[in-house]
């Protein structure tokens, strides 16, 4: 697979999102009963993520061109809010990505189908937005165990990264799409049905770790 680094600047820190390889558009899966531990009750700009009350906002997902769900399962949080899931023992699913990443474009519809099937909310961090260097560095301390390593053994923060957190601990994660599917930055090809189902099952397995 092809990956690029996601790095923070030395002063005011703009996250430069690097992409990874793999996914395709998926039609929405049928909904099922929500899993109580992962379902978020949204009121007045907040969501209950286990023991943590997060500040959330509605997110415009129209930039994801293959997402056709009229009510997708995403709420936006800041990178700093995502850190609270780790430091305060929260529970939820976090998605780090951006619309400019072709792998993210293909991952999001499948991710949404899995979340809709289980009745959960996905907390979306748009990595194209500016963050403080201190916040980025702190996040890396919590995610270091799941980072890919470069040729010199240095950790790399790559997207699309999906992380399940239960009581402040990572219970599952998935980077990119699926093995056997590859694209470049300008490709328009999609995953086939088998590959899409494979990715859907990966997300379902990760999300179910929160039950």
Question: What labels would you give this structure?
Answer:
211 residues, alpha+beta, Glutaredoxin, five-stranded mixed sheet, three-stranded antiparallel sheet, 10 strands, 19% strand, globular, disordered N terminus
**CATH fold naming:** Glutaredoxin
Physical arrangement of strands within the biggest beta sheet:
4-6-5-9-10
Helical fraction equals 10-25%
Q: What's the helix-strand series?
A: EEEEHEHEHEEEEH
The number of domains is 1
Number of strands: 10
By CATH reckoning, the class would read Alpha Beta
Mean pLDDT: 83
CATH architect. name = 3-Layer(aba) Sandwich
Return residue spans where pLDDT drops below 50 for at least 5 consecutive residues.
Answer: 1-39
Molecular shape: globular
Gyration radius, rounded: 16 Å
Determine the CATH superfamily. Answer: Glutaredoxin
What can be said about the biggest beta sheet? 5 strands, mixed
Helix/strand-derived class? alpha+beta
Number of helices: 4
Give the N-terminus to C-terminus distance in angstroms.
Answer: 31 Å
Instruction: Classify the beta-strand content into a percent band.
Output: 15-25%
How would you describe this structure to a colleague?
With 211 residues, the chain is of the alpha+beta class. The protein has one domain: Glutaredoxin, CATH 3.40.30.10. Helix content is 25%, strand content 19%. It contains 4 helices and 10 strands. Strands 4-6-5-9-10 form a 5-stranded mixed beta sheet, with helices on both faces. Strands 1-2-3 form a 3-stranded antiparallel beta sheet, with helices on one face. α1 (79-87) crosses α3 (133-143) and α2 (102-118) packs across α4. The protein is globular and about 40 Å long. The two termini are 31 Å apart. Residues 1-39 have low confidence and may be disordered.
């Amino acid at each position: 697979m092809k990956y690029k680094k996601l790095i923070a600047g030395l002063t005011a820190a703009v996250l430069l999102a690097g992409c990874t390889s793999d996914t395709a558009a998926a039609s929405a899966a049928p909904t099922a009963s929500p899993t109580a531990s992962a379902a978020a009750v949204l009121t007045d700009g907040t969501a209950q993520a286990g023991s943590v009350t997060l500040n959330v906002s509605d997110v415009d997902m129209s930039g994801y061109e293959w997402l056709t769900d009229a009510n997708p399962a995403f709420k936006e949080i800041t990178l700093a809010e995502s850190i609270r899931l780790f430091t305060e023992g929260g529970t939820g699913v976090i998605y780090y990505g951006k619309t400019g990443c072709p792998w993210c474009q293909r991952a999001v519809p499948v991710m949404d189908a899995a979340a809709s099937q289980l009745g959960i909310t996905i907390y979306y961090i748009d990595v194209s937005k500016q963050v403080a260097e201190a916040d980025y560095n702190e996040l890396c301390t919590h995610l270091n165990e799941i980072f890919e390593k470069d040729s010199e053994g240095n950790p790399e923060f790559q997207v699309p990264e999906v992380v399940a957190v239960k009581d402040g601990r990572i219970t599952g994660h998935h980077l990119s799409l699926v093995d056997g599917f590859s694209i470049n930055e300008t490709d328009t090809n999609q995953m086939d049905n088998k590959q899409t189902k494979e990715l859907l099952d990966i997300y379902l397995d990760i999300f179910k770790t929160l039950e």
